[in-house]
Design brief:
heterodimer; A: alpha+beta; Rossmann fold; OB fold (Dihydrolipoamide Acetyltransferase, E2P); 5 domains; five-stranded antiparallel β-sheet; about 25% strand; B: alpha+beta; Ribosomal Protein S5, domain 2; five-stranded mixed β-sheet; four-stranded antiparallel β-sheet; 9 strands; about 30% helix; about 30% strand; globular; hydrolase (chain A); RNR_Ribonuclease (chain A); endonuclease activity (chain A)
Chain lengths: ~1000, ~260
């Protein structure tokens, strides 16, 4: 018999084997025991330029490139560390103050990021992890990732009974000790007198104490920052450290109920007693939120601060249904935080005797409850729930302004630290308590802050200041604010991106010789009479058109799209940047490009009179506009003219023009009308959104006037052919790549989305809205007219649009084929192909189409369903954000255009609350709230309102005047602007005129 | 410890601290079961395989059956994956497709390396017991079977040694730069495209070098294949050296015990 002996002889020199065993719980509740090997080694460099021993140690990867040392030999010195220092932060330092580490300049350079810390950050927060990784890539910052868990000397085995946090802290201390000793050796061998200190940064008291015991230089973040030359500015960015929070806990009562444990939430969600969803706060009432969960048709209501239990709009929460007798009807009242919580003080929050729900808030809500009980119709009540836990916080950076009333000393020189309230721009976000030393300076500025935590004893979340964007109301600050608010990437393109541009720059031309590789597989369409039609002043021309009558009586039509994929190759830096940006963002005075200017406005843009590469879709259609055949090809074109919509319209209408180009445009016009008629017959919706154009002075881009957008036939001409091209390409791509085609769909809206609107129309106007199909909806929308008021139809269309789902990009393999339908366009399949300069989705579609016609091979990233899904997810978000940012920009400029003016205009009542109503003013595309309180003259009491929820009307009984407002009613409103007293912020104010 | 392979690009260190071209600890013993004609026990990291060989013996199931190949011995492979070998307790039926496929791969590799023509009308049965799984299962089985067959004294042209290779992105700047990784553990196997390479012979001076087994079930770009294959063949040579060492030290011990 031989016994099996385990030999511990290692297979290669320099490594030692260890193993790690741990338990983990899966989502399903199963417990797994994981055993993993660990090969400890001694060839992981310290990466300090001071150390010559480590330099030739690291073997590098397969490609034999060894990495240069990262940490400087002469790191910067501070008051406390005169010989220079390397930082070794622990996990909490990164989690609480990533902004500080990201700061440009001399502070926070030469940082050692330990593997232990990096992995803990990754487990705790992926976005922070990605920011940290980006820092390690930034050469100027000199961040080095040291794999301490793989190095023999710094590896720490978890002791029996030791918590994982203690073990990690110990690992950090051990790494610090090793580094200090290693650097001393290095300095000695170099005979250099200066040996940089290794400073551990931690906020954990216990860890700091142990570090001092082990003679490791350690400091908490605040003490460290206060030793830096720029301390005052930096200290605000350091989140209120946990130490301070602990001291508070002793004396304050807990305002909010505790969250359930993660396992309790998971079990609850699994067996159906709890539900999980995204918490959305109503834009009209900050105390009411909704959560849509799959188990219920309608969204669940969450009312009041106690029930929403520290959830912030956008968080993923777990909720518990309340018993039926506590169910509420959705609020019919406007409640704004600014009004209700006006007098609260940021400083004394803990001592206030009121509990979470302040007296005023309680009163505001009580009205609600009374009404809900008084109502006879039980159907009005909706399932109501409370938040019992948070799965994932969705906190981002918020733009807002400091509440002037919460600032103690207005003296801008005062450096005393005080706590102030920040009122976010987004009304759905609660006030944020911020500790700052520069309160005086920040009042009246747009500021960027982030939320750090929301503890049970604090009524409001606690955050910290990041930076100031500039004075309120200034163009620069407001534009930057809205770009930040909608997460638009607006920094200039980095050098790595610009390096991807063609070296010839603006001198790039289509190669003269057709033998050139650029011509390979391209058709020469330079002799076609192509022209482009765009809004006036357009410089990024994506598309051009042509039409020609064929001898057999049919027409040849071509849509030529800028060949962006020729210049932007998959996976290079430019492509990555474009895929991040996702879309070009159009603001009133500014355009934030997806691609660098050189491409967008010159090399790709189908400018007139020059030759350009294009991707062409050509059809032969008969006189009925039915497609006989279609071809797709890469091509070279020369546009004959770039028209604006007006110019094109004039040219078509001008009978004296009989040249071939104009004839072609007339053919296009004739065919586009037929296409449109066909599309409408199939049930395409003609929707409306309030669109206005702000006219700006050309020099200063100050707004001078606002106009509603005019629609010409030529707009529709271009639109029809773009739709046709998109549909054709979608079909072709789907045929070639049934699993991975990038498509766009618009889901049919669920029936109850229209419930309210259709009820309103029935009650107020006796009209019927049929919603069983898009065709029925289109037809019944056509019948919603009022002969005396032409705008009524548009108003209904605007309201109907708000009931729809939003269209989205998706990857064909992720949806059943029946789900591909585009509801609004009534098309079975659809994609975006025609604007590759300004939309990333189109660029991807170009690449897929190029592969489908075997022009080039498809990149691997476009073959993987998971990668495409990630791309779709991103561009869906970017697309929506770009729209929102654009709208916000128009809103801001409309406000500026109205500055100082008083105008009386027609408005329509869009929505009625019990204490106010929403008016839409078509002339300016603005929507505003008129509250009963606003109707009171000076010194007068707030007029009484009698609200009839079933008939959608509000009767106003003031001391001096009586009025009745009904839904859809046309009223006269006085538009003026008013500077708010507390904030100095300008707001448009609407008033009812009798 | 990193949870996925994306950290490789950071410092060229793998999930378990190895560099790209390092094998895991490979430990093997032969003649572990006296009752079998040949036996071996092999650990490749946490993948543990016990192998016994019986035969050559008369063919089972009656003489002259349809499967009788007449003038040469038939290699039969039976694989037994213990229910406790993986992370989850899972019983694998013998009719499992993946198990069957591995059995066929191993059998056909040895069919052409063993001198089967010396044993007409007979069967050589190789039984593999998988005690623990942590990646590179097929490679470990091939290596264990080689040792057991040598222990059984069945003549063969050379060792079959086997190893897995994967391809991992080596920098997150460009997707084109890939490093081949040698000898994968279970986690790496789940995340990366990989293949199993098995070779026979040492190349120049030590007989012809042939690739006997090449199994790949994941997609990988054509351009990356060459580097993977060459690293794999090189890894097989390293494994062969270790197996050779095991056999030689065992032989030495046997000789010494005979002499004394």
């Amino acid at each position: 018999m031989t016994s099996l002996k385990r030999s511990h002889a290692s297979t290669s020199t320099g490594t030692t084997l260890s193993s790690k065993t741990y338990l983990r719980t899966l989502k399903s509740g199963k417990v797994q025991k994981v055993v993993r090997e660990l090969y400890l080694r001694q060839d992981i460099p310290c990466s300090s330029r001071l150390c010559s021993a480590c330099l030739d140690l690291a073997p590098g990867g397969f490609h034999r490139r060894s990495e240069p040392a990262v940490l400087s030999a002469t790191p910067s010195a501070t008051k406390h560390y005169p010989e220079g220092h390397y930082l070794v932060p622990d996990t909490n330092a990164f989690l609480s103050a990533m902004d500080v580490f990201e700061i440009e300049g001399n502070a926070f350079q030469d940082v050692v990021v330990l593997q232990t810390v990096l992995e803990e950050v990754k487990n705790r927060s992926l976005p922070l992890y990605n920011r940290l990784i980006a820092l390690t890539k930034n050469e100027g910052k000199r961040f080095y990732v040291f794999f301490n868990d793989f190095r023999l000397e710094t590896y720490v085995q978890r002791d029996a009974g030791e918590t994982i946090n203690d073990r990690n802290d110990r690992a950090v201390r051990k790494a610090c000790a090793w580094y200090a000793q290693h650097l001393q050796q290095a300095a000695k061998s170099r005979k250099s007198a200066r040996c940089p200190a290794v400073v551990m940064i931690s906020d954990d008291k216990d860890c700091l104490r142990k570090a001092t015991g082990e003679s490791i230089i350690a400091s908490n973040l605040e003490t460290y920052v206060s030793g830096l030359p720029d301390a005052d500015r930096l200290i605000d960015m350091v989140a209120a450290s946990s130490e301070q929070r602990i001291t508070k806990e002793g004396r304050s009562q807990l305002l909010y109920p505790d969250y359930l444990t993660i396992s309790a939430m998971l079990t609850g969600v699994k067996n159906g007693t709890l539900h999980q969803g995204i918490f959305n706060v109503s834009p009209y009432n900050y105390l009411e939120g909704t959560v849509h969960v799959p188990a219920f048709d309608r969204s669940l209501i969450i009312q009041g601060r106690e029930n929403s239990n520290r959830a912030v709009s956008g968080d993923i929460v777990v909720i518990e249904l309340l018993p039926k007798d506590q169910w509420k009807a959705p609020s019919s009242k406007v409640i704004e935080e600014e009004d209700v919580g006006k007098n609260e003080s940021a400083e004394v929050d803990e001592e206030s005797p009121e509990g979470i729900v302040s007296e005023r808030e309680r009163r505001a809500l009580q009205d609600e409850v009374k009404k809900a009980h008084g109502q006879s119709t039980e159907g009005q009540k909706q399932p109501t729930a409370k938040v019992v836990g948070i799965v994932k916080r969705n906190w981002r950076q918020y733009v807002g302004h400091i509440d002037r009333d919460s600032v103690r000393s207005r003296n801008s020189d005062s450096r005393a630290q005080q706590t102030v309230f920040l009122i976010p721009m987004d009304k759905r976000i609660p006030k944020i308590r911020v500790r700052t030393r520069q309160a005086g300076e920040l009042v009246g500025k747009r500021v960027l802050v982030t939320i750090d935590s929301w503890d049970r004893e604090s009524r409001y979340p606690v955050g910290h200041f990041i930076r100031s964007l500039g004075e309120l109301e200034t163009k620069g600050a407001e534009t930057e604010a809205l770009l930040l608010e909608w997460d638009v990437q607006y920094r200039p393109f980095p050098k790595t991106v610009l390096d991807c541009l063609p070296a010839e720059g603006h001198d790039w031309k289509v190669p003269a010789s057709t033998e050139d590789p650029g011509w390979q597989g391209r058709r020469d369409l330079r002799d076609l009479l192509v022209c482009s039609i765009d809004p006036p002043g357009c410089v990024d021309i994506d598309d051009a058109l042509h039409a020609k009558k064929l001898p057999n009586g049919n027409f040849e039509i071509g849509v030529h799209i800028a060949d962006v994929s020729h210049f932007v190759k998959p996976n290079n830096a430019m492509d990555k940047e474009a895929s991040l940006r996702g879309t070009t963002v159009y603001l009133v005075d500014k355009r934030i490009d997806m691609l660098p200017m050189l491409l967008g406005t010159d090399l790709c843009s189908l400018k007139p009179y020059v030759e350009r590469f294009a991707f062409s879709v050509m059809w032969e259609v008969n006189t009925n506009a039915d497609i006989v055949n279609s071809t797709f090809t890469k091509s070279v074109i020369r546009s004959r003219e770039a028209f604006s919509y007006e110019a094109a319209q004039l040219r078509i209408d001008d009978r004296s023009q009989q040249d071939e180009l104009t004839q072609g445009m007339r053919h296009l016009m004739m065919l586009s009308k037929k296409l449109r008629a066909k599309r409408m017959a199939a049930g395409a919706l003609n929707l409306a959104s309030p669109e206005v154009r702000v006219q700006t002075e050309s020099e200063t881009s100050d707004p001078v006037d606002v106009q509603t957008k005019k629609l010409l036939d030529t707009n529709q001409l271009v639109e029809e052919f773009m739709l046709l091209a998109n549909i054709s390409v979608a079909g072709k791509n789907f045929e070639a790549f049934p699993q991975t085609a990038l498509l766009r769909r618009h889901a049919a809206p669920p029936k109850n989305n229209f419930e309210e609107l259709s009820n309103q129309l029935k009650v107020k106007k006796g009209l019927e809205l049929r919603t069983e199909s898009s065709k029925a909806l289109a037809d019944s929308l056509d019948t919603c007219v009022e002969s005396s008021e032409p705008f009524f139809n548009t108003l209904v269309r605007i309201l109907a649009t708000r009931c729809m789902m939003s269209a989205e990009y998706f990857c064909s393999g992720t949806q059943a084929e029946s789900e591909f339908r585009h509801y609004g366009l009534a098309s079975e399949i659809y994609t975006h192909f025609t604007s590759p300069i300004r939309r990333y989705a189109d660029l991807e579609a170009h690449r897929q189409l190029a592969a489908a016609i075997e022009y080039e091979s498809l990149d691997a990233s476009l073959q993987s369903k998971s990668k495409l899904e990630a791309v779709c997810k991103n561009i869906n978000v970017r697309h929506r954000n770009a729209q929102m940012a654009g709208r916000a920009s128009v809103e801001y400029y409309v406000g500026q255009a109205l500055k100082g003016r008083v105008i009386v205009e027609d408005g329509f009542v869009m929505r009625i609350f019990s204490n106010g109503f929403v008016v839409f003013v078509p002339r300016f595309g603005i929507e505003g709230l008129i509250r009963l309180r606003d109707m009171a003259e000076d010194g007068e009491k707030e007029p009484e309102g009698v609200f009839d929820a079933e008939n959608y009307s509000l009767e106003i009984k003031g001391e001096k005047r009586q009025a009745k407002v009904e839904l859809f009613q046309k009223i006269k409103v006085k538009i003026s602007d008013e500077a708010e007293k507390s904030t100095g912020k300008r707001k448009i104010k609407l008033q009812l005129v009798q | 410890m990193p949870l996925d392979t994306s950290t490789y690009a950071l410092a060229h260190l793998r999930l378990d601290g190895r560099r790209w071209n390092e094998l895991r600890r490979l430990h093997a013993q032969i003649s572990t079961q006296a009752a079998a004609d040949g036996s071996s026990y092999l650990e490749q990291g946490n993948t543990k395989v016990l192998c016994t060989v019986s035969g050559p013996q008369e063919q089972k199931g009656g003489r002259g059956g349809a499967r009788d190949q007449g003038n040469e011995a038939k290699v039969d492979v039976e694989m037994n994956i213990a229910a406790f070998s993986g992370m989850d307790r899972k019983r694998r039926a013998r009719s499992d497709k993946r198990v069957q496929e591995m059995q066929v791969t191993i059998a056909s590799a040895f069919q052409s390396t063993l001198f089967t023509h010396l044993f007409p009308h007979s069967t050589i049965t190789v039984t593999l017991h998988i005690l623990s799984q942590d990646g590179s299962l097929l490679a470990a089985c091939l290596n264990a079977a080689t040792l057991a067959l040598i222990d059984a004294g069945i003549p063969m042209s050379d060792y079959i040694s086997s190893v897995t290779v994967a391809s991992a992105p080596s920098s997150d700047q460009s997707l084109d730069e890939m490093d081949p990784l040698l000898d994968l553990n279970g986690l790496e196997e789940q995340e990366l495209p990989f293949m199993t390479v098995g070779t026979c012979g040492r190349g120049p001076g030590g007989g012809e070098e042939k690739v006997m087994v090449l199994v790949m079930e994941t997609k990988v770009q054509m351009a990356r294949l060459e580097a993977m294959l060459s690293v794999g063949i090189d890894g097989c040579k390293q494994v062969r050296g270790i197996l050779d060492g095991v056999v030689r030290s065992h032989g030495k011990r046997v000789l010494e015990s005979k002499v004394s």
